[in-house]
Specification:
The complex is a heterodimer of chains A (160) and B (381). Chain A is of the alpha/beta class and 160 residues long. In chain A, 21% of the residues lie in helices and 30% in strands. Chain A has 3 helices and 7 strands. Chain A starts with 5 loop residues before the first helix and ends in a 29-residue tail after the last strand. In chain B, the strands form 3 sheets. A 4-stranded antiparallel sheet of chain B has the order 1-2-3-4. A 3-stranded antiparallel sheet of chain B has the order 7-8-9. A two-stranded antiparallel sheet of chain B has the order 5-6. The chains are: A alpha/beta (160), B alpha+beta (381). At the A-B interface, strand 3 and helix 3 of A face strand 7, strand 8 and strand 9 of B.
């Protein structure tokens, strides 16, 4: 197994060439793990490109992170490829940032239908709105939950 | 005192409505009282006895584990992380310690890696046996309920010898494992896996080759390869649809690169295929266990790892019994993580539930649904 990041750098290069002004930041965490931060208004175009041209056909999950000190939420789509066998070890984190006081982004359910449940969870746990989501309702929380989104950083446990 | 909670509506859909064809449909609430194992509800809309729509309604066993982890020391979190699936505890634990070690930059000694793999594979068998026994219950096959639960004790006893606990071990810690092999373990493991392989043949005879099972499972709950990939399915559900994806091969970790085993796949994507993938995997796990006790290198089992999580990010994942279990872990230098996103195999396969059920008869629901091996507690976390 090679320790070079050739494959990862190559992917980043292709993304930068296609979306020169929309890729805000790229980072190779280690071999087979890379992060790509994009502008929220362009994430869908990048996602479609990743799926159709670079083979990322398999959604592994979606994480929301509350950076309350920086007053923003980060939404991270973890995606991988099944179609390209040599790339199955690779996980690409497609990231976008939204301001904490107006957390509204476009849904990627139309690109990867498998992200539906994860986006619903980010909606209920962080209060992030996903535009174009087919069923933006609570998933795990009870129907009568009327408290604040519980995974936000400013929500503490009573015992904490 | 806060106001008493408002009652939860039993159904979220109208009880009768008119479908596109003009026929009346009926909405049923299946669950949440142990519709299989663990509390979860499926809202099922039927036209006659054909399922036309399914909406999973999880959350009855949601514990907010992601929040709990954020407020605890990374070592103290280990028992909590094992809770969602106590029958597959060491695999979930493995994903957690892998993520931590990745940020810390700690290398696990080879003997430690082998011991981790050993318990992981024992857990895979135990988890699949539990799944099989519930499958027996679902299909009204009492023998197939009792045999796997009885044979599961073979491996529970082994795990107890190795770790000191029957079910939740907390055996894997950052840097390695807690205990070394006890004396006489290798002989016992070989004896038990060989006996178990004979039992698996009997399972085939009484259940998997039995028309009572095959006629109910073949062609039922079909999940196409394309759909399984697009929905992000994982583990036996994905492999049952003809995709040979297995992290033990695709992203070899622990001792797997040095072990010889096959990835089991079936092309049809029906309930029978998914069930047979589970059976094949138990056979392969027996092979792996015997290789480990034979090949295990000498040396230390654990390296010293700090109890703080340095600044950094990791996406650590392993192939658990129900598929990929992953942590997206963000450290900021303290002894607690800033964020620990916990995604389990069952949570990912939840997306497949409507896909396998719609179009089938209501009477086929247990066969199709349980073949996914959806564990509600693991999905809710």
């Amino acid at each position: 197994m090679s320790l070079s990041h050739e494959r990862e750098d190559d992917l980043i290069q292709k993304l930068k060439e296609t979306f020169p002004s929309d890729i805000k930041e790229t980072n190779v965490i280690r071999r087979a793990r890379l992060e790509v931060t994009v502008a929220p208004e362009k994430i869908k175009d990048v996602a479609v490109f990743l799926r159709d041209k670079l083979g990322f056909d398999h959604p592994n999950g979606v994480s929301a992170v509350d950076y309350n000190r920086e007053n923003r939420f980060e939404i991270v789509y973890h995606i991988s490829s099944i179609r390209i066998k040599e790339m199955r070890d690779l996980v690409l984190d497609l990231k976008e940032s939204v301001p904490r006081n107006a957390p509204k982004v476009g849904s990627l359910v139309s690109v990867w239908s498998g992200v539906e449940n994860y986006e619903r969870e980010s909606f209920e746990m962080f209060g992030i709105q996903f535009d174009g989501h087919p069923r933006l309702e609570k998933l795990f929380l009870t129907d009568n939950w009327d408290g604040p989104p519980p995974l936000r950083k400013d929500i503490r446990f009573p015992t904490d | 005192m806060s106001a008493p909670p408002k009652p939860v509506p039993l159904t979220t859909v109208e009880s009768t409505e008119t479908s596109d064809s003009g026929a009346q449909t009926l909405t049923l609430s299946v669950g949440p009282q142990h519709s299989g194992s663990g509390h979860m509800r499926l809202i099922v809309e039927v036209d006659g006895d054909i399922i036309v729509n399914v909406a999973p309604d999880p959350g009855y066993v949601h514990r907010g584990i992601e929040k709990i982890i954020e407020l605890r020391n990374i070592i103290k979190s280990i028992p909590v992380i094992e809770r969602p699936s106590i029958i597959d505890a060491s695999n979930l634990n493995h994903a957690w310690v892998r993520s931590i070690e990745e940020i810390q930059g700690v290398e696990v000694p080879r003997r430690g890696q082998y011991l981790r793999t050993l318990l992981n594979e024992m857990n895979r068998i135990m988890s699949h046996l539990y799944w099989l026994s519930i499958y027996g219950v679902f299909l009204g096959h009492t023998t197939m309920f009792m045999w796997p639960l009885g044979d599961r004790e073979l491996f529970i006893d082994l795990a107890e010898k190795l770790t000191g606990a029957r079910i939740t071990y907390s055996y894997l810690v950052p840097g390695g494992v807690r205990r070394d092999l006890p004396p006489g373990f290798a002989e016992e493991a070989v004896k038990r896996t060989e006996y178990f392989e004979k039992r698996l043949k009997e399972y085939d005879r009484i259940f998997f080759n039995n028309p009572l099972f095959t006629s109910r499972a073949k062609g039922i709950g079909v999940l196409s390869k394309e759909k399984a990939i697009e929905l992000g399915c994982t583990g036996p559900t994905l492999r049952g649809s003809g995709v040979d994806a297995d992290l033990r091969k695709d992203e070899p970790y622990a001792a797997y690169p040095e072990l010889d085993f096959e990835v089991s796949t079936r092309p049809d994507g029906d309930s029978f295929s998914r069930a047979m993938v589970h059976m094949d995997e138990m056979r392969e796990s027996c092979k792996i266990i015997r290789q480990i006790v034979k090949k295990i290198p000498t040396g230390p089992i654990r390296r010293k790892a700090p109890i703080v999580l340095p600044r950094g990010v990791a996406y650590g994942r392993v192939e658990s019994a129900r598929g990929e279990c992953s942590f997206y872990l963000i450290g900021e230098g303290g002894d607690k993580p800033y964020r620990a996103r916990y995604i389990t195999g069952s949570y990912r396969n939840m997306a497949a539930i409507p896909a396998v059920l719609v179009g089938n008869r209501l009477a086929d629901m247990p066969t199709a649904w349980w073949s996914i091996d959806y564990w509600p507690v693991e999905a809710d976390r």
